[in-house]
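Hi F.,

I've been meaning to write this up properly since the lab meeting, where we talked about keeping a consistent format for the predictions we share between groups. The idea is simple: the sequence comes first, exactly as it goes in, then the structure tokens exactly as they come out, then a line or two of notes. No screenshots and no reformatting. I'm using this chain as the first example so we have something concrete to point to.
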Amino acid sequence: MSIVMFAALVALAGAPAPPILPTIPPATIDDTLEITGEALAAEQRRTRMFIPVEIDGKGPFRFLVDSGADRSVIGADLAARLALPPGNDVRLQGMAGDARVGTVQIATLKLGQSTIASIGAPALPERFLGAQGLVGIDALADQRLMLDFDRKTITVQDSRRPEPVGSDEIVVVARRRNGQLILTAASVGGVPVYAVIDTGSEITMGNLALRARVFGMRLPPVPRLVTLTSVTGQTLTADLLQLANIRIGGIDIANVNVAFADAPPFRLFGLQKQPAILLGTDVLEAFRRVALDFRARRVRFTIRR
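Output, unedited:
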């Protein structure tokens, strides 16, 4: 089983590893996050959602929204076709390891009515991206984003604009780590976990600390081996096991398949020693809508009635 994933950090070559996260207080739940604006028609493949974007006034091009990546990525063929000027090499930390890659300079990246200027984007083969590019945290830091899995739309809104007040959803306040949204109001089988929202991954992934806490000394079911392919083309083998329950902000999701492995993103987030999970779109699509406010560090889950 081969799955293309991108839950990664892109760091400058030679940059030191980030420190371990300090103790994070419990998240709070409120009901105030509402996102309005232009709803972009999104293409959904399996559970991941793609949107049209413009690069330097050209396009639209098919990009994947990836809340697990701190920088946007462009397909190497598309970068060559647009004759984008080269930038510095960077060290890309992917799901399966790190690699040194070249970047190109994007003057403007447009999502709906929002335009983000001056992006240095790693250029990677489209066959590993599964798209013409990825929209990362560098383009989303000042945005609100709503993924509507029922309508297959993504709404983008500048978070510096006032937001209207909603009513019927559950909002969890998250912590940000390099821009990624990390929830503390989550648990697996009663075990509190840190949960990273990762819209770029179509499968949910757990670390080995979580596996040890959930299964303890008893033998887990025989796992199914899966091969995870990173955007760099590197692969990682993981054990696919089914968890009886994942609880997010008071909502229970039953019988969730989770791939367990000692993946580099857990170390980069400072979460390798404590139970943690990367919530992929296979879990997120259990909700009708998921809204992300990167600036205010809030996530809203709208349940299906």
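Notes:
The chain is about 10% helix and 50% strand.
Residues 208-215 form the longest helix (8 residues).

If this format works for you, I'll send the rest the same way.

G.
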